[in-house]
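To the wet lab folks,

You asked to see what we're planning to order before we commit. Fair enough. Below is the target structure as tokens, and below that is the sequence we designed to fit it. If anything looks off to you, flag it before the synthesis order goes out.
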């Protein structure tokens, strides 16, 4: 096994994150700074009531607003992400190590590894929702709360969105810390 691939892969994953951050900042306008958090507005405004939390080694903590009318619950959710800086960088570091080992020795494990990290990052999204709920008493306000009857459609919603589906995020059970994201996934799919 070539051990030089491990630091290369770690640097690759960390670099991808920082390049993404740089591109976001390049297309954003600075608004103000409050409590060591810089607020920016994305230049190509969207109609989406959303924001992006950025934790960066080079740029610090920031929240980029994607529209002119971002409500408080979205901002509170992003505050939750800014508290997860260590988890994000630890996950990227571990992903680099495990990805390089699996790539060299056990390539059949790559889909399992990527799916595991997919659920970990979905867990981080849920933790940000729980933070907003516990600290600011706000919940996610869904745009599409209808649950599809087709299991394939539900599975696609779980796999191709960064958050749990809207029909799961509106339930009281989602805000119960004792239920983990895999339990909520299995209950919804099965």
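Sequence we intend to order:
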């Amino acid at each position: 096994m070539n051990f030089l691939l491990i630091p290369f892969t770690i640097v690759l994953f960390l670099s991808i994150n920082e390049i993404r951050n740089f591109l976001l900042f390049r297309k954003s306008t600075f608004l103000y700074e409050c409590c060591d958090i810089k607020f920016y507005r994305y230049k190509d405004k969207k109609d989406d009531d959303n924001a992006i939390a950025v934790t960066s080694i080079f740029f610090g903590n920031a929240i980029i607003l994607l529209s002119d009318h971002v409500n408080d619950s979205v901002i509170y959710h992003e505050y939750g992400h800014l508290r997860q800086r260590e988890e994000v960088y630890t996950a990227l570091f571990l992903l680099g190590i495990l990805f390089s080992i699996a790539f060299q020795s056990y390539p059949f494990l790559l889909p399992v590894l990527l799916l595991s990290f997919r659920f970990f990052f979905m867990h981080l999204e849920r933790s940000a929702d729980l933070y907003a709920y516990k600290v600011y008493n706000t919940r996610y306000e869904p745009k599409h709360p209808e649950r599809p009857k087709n299991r394939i459609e539900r599975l696609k919603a779980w796999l191709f969105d960064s958050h749990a589906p809207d029909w799961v995020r509106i339930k009281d059970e989602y805000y119960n810390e004792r239920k983990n994201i895999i339990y909520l996934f299995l209950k919804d799919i099965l």
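Structural context that might help your review: The mean pLDDT is 89. Residues 110-136 form the longest helix (27 residues).

Thanks,
Computational group
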